[in-house]
């Protein structure tokens, strides 16, 4: 397993990060209903990942319902000193509980959320605490100051963000620097061969500020796993069979061209399509660790080889060309004149 610095910090994390959104049997109130695994399977998945060198686990208070995923991870920590073998990341921001302060990134809510997560995770610290999405109803200064206080109190070691607009991330990083507060070391964001919009603004921004990118949905909800074929329905029981609206968004000529390129590179390299899609991200600038999910131990084993898969420049170009997206103004304007933006 390859290990990389977590953004500009000194801590080392595995090139693959185990995402836990599918952990625990969520009921019909949860968006993960019918696409998750039971706790026993989740514990086995974490054991297998750790044995293979994956030392980075990502969860969130909202995964499952009522903190289900965090509770499953907390149960896993109870056995055999596993807590100190992993870098633990979780997130806050979305709706939990009732009342007018059930969501958001205010100081009032952050203090409550971190204590609830610590309790569910059965730990005394969170290694990477991330705001799940920017909160335009709350001043960024309030959020930054509250997170800085958690670091100084020892309850959080590093802070990160997820689903931030580039303007807001720039504002936050400058605010942290100018006021000597803890700043975000990572950006967790949707990034895959299907979703490359991050490259317009966020990738250059993260490179400038030393922010590590943690891609989520690197297989586009399983679309790049090799299970799906053009003009055929999504296989029964898969996530895209359950999430039919997302399947409709993926069913485009561009995306099927991407699948064809991924399958072709997989055949040439002796890898699986999923391994190729994950490895493509690991070859991209500023990517620290790619978050992959698993509902079975077999899926963990299928994804692990991606960490050591080396793609040739020719293979990367084939994948880049197939997945190229329209830049839009002003990026295409700048690219025509000087070749880049």
List the SSEs and their pairings.
Blueprint: E1 3-5, E2 12-14, E3 16-19, H1 39-51, E4 56-58, H2 68-77, E5 87-92, H3 107-121, E6 126-131, H4 140-152, E7 156-162, H5 166-178, E8 184-190, H6 198-209, E9 212-216, H7 239-242, H8 244-250, H9 253-269, H10 273-282, E10 290-293, H11 297-303, H12 313-323, H13 331-338
Parallel strand pairs: 3-4, 3-10, 4-5, 5-6, 6-7, 7-8, 8-9
Antiparallel strand pairs: 1-2
Helix pairs in contact: 1-2, 2-3, 4-5, 9-10, 9-12
Can you walk through the features of this model?
By secondary structure, the chain is of the alpha/beta class. The protein has a single domain (3-338), classed as Alpha-Beta Barrel (TIM Barrel). Helix content is 41%, strand content 14%. The protein has 13 helices and 10 strands. It has helices at 39-51, 68-77, 107-121, 140-152, 166-178, 198-209, 239-242, 244-250, 253-269, 273-282, 297-303, 313-323, 331-338; strands spanning 3-5, 12-14, 16-19, 56-58, 87-92, 126-131, 156-162, 184-190, 212-216, 290-293. The strands form 2 sheets. The protein has an 8-stranded parallel β-sheet. Strands 1-2 form a two-stranded antiparallel sheet. Helix 2 links the parallel strand 4 (56-58) and strand 5. Helix 1 packs across helix 2 and helix 4 crosses helix 5 (166-178). The protein is globular and about 50 Å long.
């Amino acid at each position: 397993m390859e290990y990389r610095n977590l953004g500009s910090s000194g801590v080392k994390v595995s090139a693959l990060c185990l995402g836990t959104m599918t952990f625990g049997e969520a009921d019909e109130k949860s968006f993960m209903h019918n696409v998750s695994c039971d706790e026993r399977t989740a514990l086995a998945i974490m054991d297998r990942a750790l044995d293979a060198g994956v030392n980075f686990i990502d969860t969130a208070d909202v995964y499952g319902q009522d903190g289900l995923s965090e509770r499953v991870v907390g149960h896993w920590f109870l056995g055999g000193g596993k807590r100190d073998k992993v870098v633990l990341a979780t997130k806050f921001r979305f709706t939990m509980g009732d009342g007018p302060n059930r969501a958001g990134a205010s100081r009032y809510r952050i203090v409550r959320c971190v204590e609830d997560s610590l309790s569910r995770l059965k730990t005394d610290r969170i290694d990477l605490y991330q705001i799940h999405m920017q909160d335009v109803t709350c001043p960024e200064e309030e959020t930054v100051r509250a997170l800085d206080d958690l670091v100084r109190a020892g309850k959080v070691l590093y802070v990160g963000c997820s689903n931030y607009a580039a303007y807001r991330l720039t504002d936050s990083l400058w605010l942290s620097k100018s006021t000597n507060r803890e700043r975000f070391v990572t950006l967790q964001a949707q990034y895959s061969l299907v979703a490359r919009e991050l490259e317009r603004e966020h990738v250059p921004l993260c490179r400038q500020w030393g922010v590590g990118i943690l891609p989520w949905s690197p297989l586009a909800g399983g679309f790049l796993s090799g299970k799906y074929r053009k003009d055929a329905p999504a296989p029964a029981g898969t996530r895209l069979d359950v999430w039919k609206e997302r399947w409709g968004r993926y069913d485009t000529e561009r995306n099927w061209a991407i699948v064809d390129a991924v399958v072709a590179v997989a055949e040439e390299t002796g890898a699986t399509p999923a391994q190729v899609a994950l490895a493509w991200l690991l070859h991209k600038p500023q990517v620290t660790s790619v978050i992959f999910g698993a509902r079975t131990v077999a899926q963990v084993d299928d994804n692990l080889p991606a960490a050591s898969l080396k793609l040739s420049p020719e293979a990367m170009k084939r994948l880049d060309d197939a997945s190229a997206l329209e830049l839009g103004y002003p990026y295409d304007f700048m690219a025509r004149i000087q070749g880049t933006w």
